[in-house]
Structure to design on (261 residues):
């Protein structure tokens, strides 16, 4: 008589605080619900962007809520490097790389946590291929509650919260970047849709100068740096007003940009 298979484990989408790479950290209990922290403390199998930052996050959780097993016994698997660079959304170059191989613990009945370095995994971060693989395996996918920088920025921007789009990263080439800015502004003028995007922190000042140079004076431009931190800087004003200010986002602080009408 064959042994029955254990029920599939669940994939938990575990949000992380938004202070990765910042000079200071936010108290976990101030930015993450106790239920999220308690669930994360119970997990011992992880898929993540970076194992080192995953361990650092688990140590922060352990200081508040003891982990269910010593950290040394946790199974931590990293997403492949090409997924970081190319993305893992449908249609990307990294699509179909076989994310199910990272979810083998589900087949043994173990729950797995999916973790980004900051915010909600698979939103402005890799991980969507892992979520798709879990669905295709028939496993339950459970999102936990935590901060999402894109929505926090939108909510504080005064831009259109009924119609918005996340555009990821704008082109690095100056000419292509200016063309893309004008395209998105034209779309916003026609539809009223707010446009949201991010940049690698050390390129923040260059992007900022391009926005001020190429957006129309009446366009509203919002910027949110260091979200959830005590030193958070969230501002929203017309481009004409911005041009009178001696201000630029810091090179070392994660920042979300948005513009619209």
């Amino acid at each position: 008589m064959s042994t029955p298979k254990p029920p599939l484990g669940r994939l938990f989408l575990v949000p992380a605080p938004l202070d990765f790479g910042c000079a200071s950290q936010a108290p976990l209990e101030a930015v993450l619900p106790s239920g999220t922290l308690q669930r994360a403390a119970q997990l011992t199998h992880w898929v993540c962007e970076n194992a080192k930052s995953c361990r650092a996050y688990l140590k922060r959780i352990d200081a508040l809520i003891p982990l269910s097993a010593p950290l040394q016994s946790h199974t931590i698997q990293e997403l492949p490097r090409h997924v970081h660079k190319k993305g893992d959304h449908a249609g990307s170059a990294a699509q179909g790389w076989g994310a199910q191989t990272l979810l083998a613990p589900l087949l043994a009945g173990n729950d797995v946590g999916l973790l980004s370095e900051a915010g909600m995994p698979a939103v402005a971060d890799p991980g969507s291929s892992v979520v798709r693989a879990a669905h295709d395996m028939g496993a339950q996918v459970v999102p936990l509650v935590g901060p999402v920088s894109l929505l926090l920025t939108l909510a504080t921007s005064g831009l259109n919260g009924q119609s918005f789009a996340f555009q990821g990263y704008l082109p690095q080439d100056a000419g292509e970047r200016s063309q893309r800015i004008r395209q998105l502004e034209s779309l916003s003028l026609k539809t009223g849709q707010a446009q949201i995007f991010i940049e690698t922190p050390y390129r923040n000042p260059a992007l900022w100068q391009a926005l001020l140079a190429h957006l129309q004076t009446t366009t509203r431009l919002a910027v949110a740096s260091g979200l959830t931190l005590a030193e958070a800087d969230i501002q929203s004003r017309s481009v004409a007003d911005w041009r009178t200010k001696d201000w630029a986002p810091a090179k070392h602080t994660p920042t979300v940009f948005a513009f619209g009408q």
Summary: The CA atoms of residues 88 and 95 lie 5 Å apart. The longest helix spans residues 174-191.
